[in-house]
Amino acid sequence: MLNEANLGLIFLSAFLVNNILLIRFLGLCSFIGISTNLKSSVGMGAAVVFVTVMACSISWAVYRYLLLPFRLEYLRTAAFILTIASFVQFEEIIIRKKVPAMYKAFGIYLPLITTNCAILASAFLGIDYKLSFIQNLVFALGISAGYCLIIVLFASIRERIDSAPIPVNFRGVPIAFILTGLMSLALMGFKGLFKL
Amino acid sequence: MKKLIDLKSFSLGLWKENPVFYLMLGLCPLLAVSASLKDALGMGAAFIFVLTGANITVSIIRRWVPAHIRIPVFIIVIATFVTIVDYSMAAFLPPLHRSLGVYLPLMVVNCIILGRAEAFASKNNIVNSALDGLGMGLGFTLAILAIAVLRELPGQGTVFGIRVLGKSYTPFLIMIMPPGAFLVIGFLIALKNSMGRRKNKC
User: Fold this and answer.
1) What integer pLDDT is reported at residue A113 of this predicted model?
2) What's the ipTM?
3) Residue range A68-77, pLDDT digits in tens
4) How far does B19 lie from chain A, in Å, by closest CA?
5) CA closest to A78 among chain B residues
6) Between A23, A77, A169, which is nearest B108 by CB?
């Protein structure tokens, strides 16, 4: 089980072996939408890392200290989505006031992140695997780093694809999906790395 | 103003404005649980229930929800229905619940459901909203079943777990693994493009 593994394995498992985009299929809308441009992909990737780590830690605490003691586990879905939505709002206000440079760099990606299913999923998965706080933190870091890596790699490939001779019907989204499939195929190679 | 009961709100979602192939929304569950037809059917049924329930509820409360907090209210309504499905499935169909895993609670951030609540149910009467939910839900189910057939048949040589292709058939395993999902959806969208329809993005 994941909660008995050491922190390095938890990170690797979330980062490569069970990559959130290519193996778990989460966060695809933003992935396909934003990866047309390398610069915005880097921005989105950084914003996802930041928000996932913070939001997962907060939802872990909400679950452990609010929902569990009062036997309210069934409110998990509603509680997590509200936690994440309000956290993103709150964070946006703080960053805008305190670190304007960072706010400018994240731009529109911060509010968009509320509906990114990768973040809600990391919160759910951390609870499902019964991780401790530190393990959950490393897990969230691994997941978001995996997202960041793939979206940046993919954006770089897509910039080349734009100038390649592709059949008309495959231009745009279809070729993006087929490329994603090929990248996913490459990542399947890590499957045998260790069993968890 | 629309008619009291407009059958069009049902039929549009089935094909002409199919939420998956026309609007390109809600891709995550579509790819993740389409490796087998059984899971796909379970996901489709859960989806129809949540979409119809959320549409009806939003349509009932639409007059009392202040415009600037409507999105959080809609999300809570959707989360309620998702929780109902999650817990009933865990009680009555535990194997299906296990194989759907995290993708079931993740319906709460699915853009089709929130999209229909916002774009249709918050503006139309209860009957039409229910019909719209049913139509869009069925459209989603048809799409996910189509993808599941294209993955399960070559990937395992079976349909709903029943062997269709003979014993001599060597399964094309990649189709039921994650890369297969991306390849199938890529080719399906290319097919749709070649049929000359317009497309939109999420």
Assistant:
1) 76
2) 0.85
3) 999 988 898 8
4) 14
5) B79
6) A77
